[in-house]
Input
Amino acid sequence: MKNRTNASVKKHYEQGHKYTSRQTEEDAVFDSYEWSHYEVLEIGCGEGTLAKRIYDTGAAIFASDYVDYDWDKTKRGPIYLLGSYKEILGHYDVVVMQGVLEHMDDPKETLEYIRDNFQPDTIISSSPCWFNPRGIVLQTLYQLFDLPITLADLHYISPKDMELEGYKLTWKTVDHDWASGQKMIDDLENRLPKVLENVEADVEKLLHWLKQVPQQGLGATIIYYLEKI
Ligand SMILES: C[S@@+](CC[C@H](N)C(=O)[O-])C[C@H]1O[C@@H](n2cnc3c(N)ncnc32)[C@H](O)[C@@H]1O
Output
């Protein structure tokens, strides 16, 4: 990931790159908050499916992305803002980011920027979780050999990275079948041959062994909650 930046990630999404389906993640993020009473800013809203659900609760939602997803602004729905989050003004009760922080040049700086400029009581942010069988296999390939285990991530975020002065951090994980179950096997069957394209490796042997791993541990997606102290 040496030459990747947040600007190069933009080109990646503009070229129509489809990110992995995030339905379980979206359901978990949506279900974990009483949105209806609040003014919400979503950063990196993508096609806007989470924003639409938040809008339908009666919340005031501003959904932003630096890529134009051709949002249908003729229908009643979220207010869409095209541009990087640094172009947005105002204060919001809640800032939500789903699968976005790992694409920033400096996630810590982004969290501090959100705190200092939008002054939210709550920040909700989800990212891939790497502390499970799927994560350990992929991180071993990345940490030891710098192999391209993902296409658009600039960082592999952990709870330590999410600590923010003035806020209390809690987190939970979801997507357990993607961390060490059938969805993990399906994902790695697709991903590993590409990751190991230029390496002589017996991928089938590893996959065969991974199929024996009992389901366990943390899920493949982690949702962080930062509450102002
Ligand atoms: C993995 S996609 C997730 C999209 C959506 N949140 C979802 O879960 O379906 C990451 C999104 O973050 C957006 N993004 C990345 N950096 C951004 C920035 N600096 N400002 C605004 N959006 C950004 C990308 O354009 C992309 O739509």
